[in-house]
Amino acid sequence: MDQNQLITEGEAIAKPCFILTSQPQGEVVGYWGGVRGDIPNSLPPEVTRFVSRRHLVTVSDGLLVQLGIDRLGPISLFEWVDTAGKPHLRVERDPRIQFNSFTCSGEPLYATESSSFPPFEALCLHGSPAIAAWLASLGLQRHEYWKVPRDSISEYLAAYQHRFPLFEVSADAIVGGWHIMWPEDDFYMPAEMIQLMLTLRDAEPWYSIWYSPMSQGCFARMHVS
């Protein structure tokens, strides 16, 4: 299989996603920074383990529904700082709340439909049987993507870098789509874990928000290069 065929295989499993920017177009679907009116940054006096809370980003779950993800309520990411000065990430969501039911002083975000081209790891794990056969011809199984020589897939990697919004300076965040494998990861996150959002603005660090349909829980990760 040549590299043009690999790219074609990647295009076949591209996922829909939304690119969020601050450029007005259509309805407001999120907020960057500022303060959510119903979850103020100021902490109540009974909170003693933390000294501050800061709203990072909120996105409407309406976008997630369009991507086939359960209605979770608006998804917000906060940074809490404890008394030792250590930051902690916390995801807030409540399916009883509507996105337009609260105010936020943050910068409004708007969505543009896009397509998420898979990283090479995702291509190996989730590509067609032809990908599995190609890996087998190299003496590899699907999960052994890390053994494929990088110089033999340089065109695919270049196509991925060209198409992935991580490298677009105008994008503030990505909702949905394929996730990427970070330097601190030992493996590509399994398909049963869904990345809801990846922030791009003010990186680094980058922040990702994840959802487990099995536990119905959300969590966040911070990434650095």
Structure description:
This protein is α+β, with helices and mostly antiparallel strands and 225 residues long. The protein has one domain: Hypothetical protein YwqG fold (Roll). Helices cover 19% and strands 30% of the residues. It has helices spanning 3-12, 61-66, 120-126, 129-137, 154-163, and strands at 15-21, 30-32, 50-59, 75-82, 87-92, 107-116, 173-176, 194-199, 206-212, 217-223. It has a ten-stranded antiparallel beta sheet. Helix 1 (3-12) runs parallel beside helix 5. The longest helix is centred in the first third of the chain and has 10 residues, at 3-12. It is elongated and about 65 Å long.
What is the topology?
Blueprint: H1 3-12, E1 15-21, E2 30-32, E3 50-59, H2 61-66, E4 75-82, E5 87-92, E6 107-116, H3 120-126, H4 129-137, H5 154-163, E7 173-176, E8 194-199, E9 206-212, E10 217-223
Antiparallel strand pairs: 1-6, 1-7, 2-3, 2-6, 3-4, 4-5, 7-8, 8-9, 9-10
Quick take:
The chain has five helices and ten strands. It is α+β, with helices and mostly antiparallel strands and 225 residues long.
Task: Describe this protein with a few key phrases.
10 strands, elongated, 225 residues, 10-stranded antiparallel beta sheet, alpha+beta, 5 helices, Hypothetical protein YwqG fold
From the helix content, strand content and strand pairing, which structural class follows?
alpha+beta
Helix content: 10-25%
The CATH class assignment is Mainly Beta
Strand order of the largest sheet: 5-4-3-2-6-1-7-8-9-10
Q: What is the CA–CA distance across the termini?
A: 31 Å
Shape: elongated
* Secondary-structure element string: HEEEHEEEHHHEEEE
Would you identify the CATH architecture?
Roll
Largest sheet: 10 strands, antiparallel
Count of distinct strands: 10
Approximately how much beta-strand content do the residues carry? 25-35%
**Alpha plus pi helix count:** 5
The parts where pLDDT drops under 50 for at least 5 residues are none
Under CATH, the topology is which?
Hypothetical protein YwqG fold
